[in-house]
Amino acid sequence: MLKNKKYLAKIGICQINLNTGDIEGNSRKITEYIKRCQEENCDIVVFPELSITGPLAKDLFLNGDFLRDNISALKSIAQHCSNIVAIVGFANKVGDKTFNSAAVISNKKIVHVSNKICLQDYIFGEKKYFSNGDKLKKIRLGRVSVVVTFANDLINLPNATFDHADYVLALGALPFISGNQKNREKIFSLLSKTQKTNIVLTNLVGGFDGIIFDGASIACDETGKIVSRAKQFEENLSLVDFSSQNKIQHKIEKYEEIYKALCLGLKDYVTKNNFSKVALGLSGGIDSALVAAIAVDSLGKDNVKCFSLPSKYTSKISKIGAEKLAKNLGIDLIEIKINPIFESYLKALKFLFKGLKQNIAEENLQARIRGTLLMTISNKFGYLLLATGNKSESSAGYATLYGDTAGGLALIGDIPKTIVYKLAEYRNTISDVIPKLIIKRAPTAELKKNQKDQDTLPKYEILDKIISDYFQYKKSPSEIIKSGIPKSIVNSSIKMFHSSQFKRAQCPPVIKIFDYTFGLDLQLPITNKYIPS
CA 51 to CA 88: how far, in whole Å? Predict the structure, then answer.
């Protein structure tokens, strides 16, 4: 049991990566970490929210067998809790209600259950599945008093009191949003200081259907000082004794943080969905170059298959850039010329297109041929195909449906073009893999002669600002125009966005990085006549 001296409990913060729905595997991992903490003579071990079921289980929480299995697993875990107190997240069925709960296990018995009060709709949709808990409650474990709660309750109940508890132990499943860690730490630090109590946050780590949980679990003492910070984007066991110096990981800078989030998101999406290798088309452009680099860094070069699919419009610089990139990454680049296939399509359609000039249909046909070839290769060899489009292109509908949008995951689909360049530059600070000629060249789809993205779109710096202002900061078109961007560009950009919603609705999932992700945070009707101006 716990030591009798106040404030001397040794706490194990188990920042673990789970598999949603893998009750057996998650329980095995929880048990292993309990054993490790027992060997380290911990008094308390704290796991993340819903650690038995895994997060974002959605309608599995409506499945009676699923709920029963998770409760059975909790009871089995309890049998491993000798001489230690374990705080474990699970889904708790009580009568006709289900709660997002935390079990307090001591001496192989469940001695207390805390239910989450502030449910998260957001990307979790918790109000569909769970009932609200009642109130925070202090409990005694030996001579130490604790409040067992959830990170979201602490964030949304700023005036909550903890009845002078020695420790507040918070289970977390706080998703990663670029730049949010600083604000998160500020909230918990201020709360521990104002309430004069020690707060421990155990946050989840891992990728789940494109949602990233970054870990970065922390402990704050009663003065508000952060005395422990776990690594971001990695499993981590932190041992916290508030009477001694604990390990504090340094924060990482913005573009390293985003890059590592994408690496974790890709690795977990691939492995948790039972793939081992990925494929993508290397065009010689910046987007596919960044995707290839992330894939190699997260999966290893032997698990990344790249294809060059040149047409008669593909420039020499594109070919050179793709070849140099592949060489720098240590991967093979397989070439399949699409022109013979393209000509065969045109021949088949000649009778129908007679008398009509070539236009965007023939341009997009090239992209669809590439998409078909890559999907067929994916299908044949069991690769996960990575779409390489970015958020800026998606916002303007500057993509070919069933062409370059084809794939099982749009890895950088939440990354604006301006940030794509920043991430490429960051990656080259580690080792110089993305050729300068790729970074410096003007963006082009190369679907017709001398084509450039800016023939159709505003400069990406301007487009990204419009989209950010309009969606993230909720500015009206008139407010954006007042910032100095011409009215015609603002209105045309917003019109392009609304008119291309039908494309985004059919695109692959993305790795969520920012707080205005299309399809997750931002949901719009496909059939819609309202376009602000």
Answer: 7
205-208 and 211-214 beta bridge pairing:
antiparallel
Do residue 270 and residue 245 come from a single domain? no
Q: Determine, yes or no, domain membership for 302.
A: yes
CA angle 303, 304, 308 (to 5 degrees): 150
CA proximity to 118, closest of 62, 192, 174: 174
* Distance from C-alpha of 299 to C-alpha of 268, rounded to nearest angstrom: 10
Q: Are strands 10-15 and 236-241 parallel, antiparallel or unpaired?
A: antiparallel
**Is position 527 within any domain?**
no
Structural domain total, the chain:
2
Quick one: tokens of 335?
């070439």
The last residue of a domain, from among 195, 219, 251: 251
Residue 489 has pLDDT above 70, yes or no: yes
Nearest Cα to 288, choosing from 273, 304, 274, 275? 304
The alpha helices in 140-273, defined as continuous H runs, are 151-156, 180-195, 254-272
Q: Are residues 185 and 312 in the same domain?
A: no
Output phi, psi for 206, to 5 deg: 130, 170
Condensed to tens digits (0 to 9), the pLDDT of residues 99-141 reads 999 999 999 999 999 999 999 988 899 999 999 999 999 999 9
C-alpha–C-alpha distance, residues 170 and 156, integer Å: 13
| Domain shared by 171 and 221, yes or no | yes
Asked whether residue 417 is assigned to any structural domain, the reply reads yes
Give the structural domain span for 285. 257-454
DSSP assignment of 346-388: HHHHTTTSTT----HHHHHHHHHHHHHHHHHHHHHHTPEEEE-
Q: Give the H/E segment covering residue 144.
A: strand 144-150
- Do both 243 and 301 map to the same domain? no
Listed in sequence order, the DSSP H helices in 40-179 are: 64-78, 126-129, 151-156
Q: CA angle, 466 as apex, 461 and 471 as ends, to 5°?
A: 130
222 and 343, same structural domain?
no
Distances (CA, A) of 43 to 11, 40, 87: 6, 9, 11
For residues 208 and 212, what is the distance between their CA atoms, to the nearest angstrom? 6
Nearest to 374 by CA among 331, 333, 404, 329: 404
Q: Which of 232, 251, 270 is the last residue of a domain?
A: 251
Which tokens hold the place of 115?
């239910």
Same domain flag for 130 and 73: yes
The answer to whether residues 266 and 239 touch, using CB atoms and an 8 Å cutoff, is no
Instruction: Tell me whether residue 501 is in a domain.
Output: no
Same-domain status, 195 and 109: yes
Give the tens place of pLDDT for each residue, 62-102: 999 999 999 999 999 999 999 999 999 999 999 999 999 99
| Residue 3: band (very low, low, confident or very high) from pLDDT cuts 50, 70, 90 | very low
Take residue 343 and report the two structure tokens written for it.
Answer: 């000509």
The CATH number covering residue 30 comes to 3.60.110.10
Same domain, 167 and 238: yes
On whether the CB atoms of residues 339 and 311 are closer than 8 A, the answer is yes
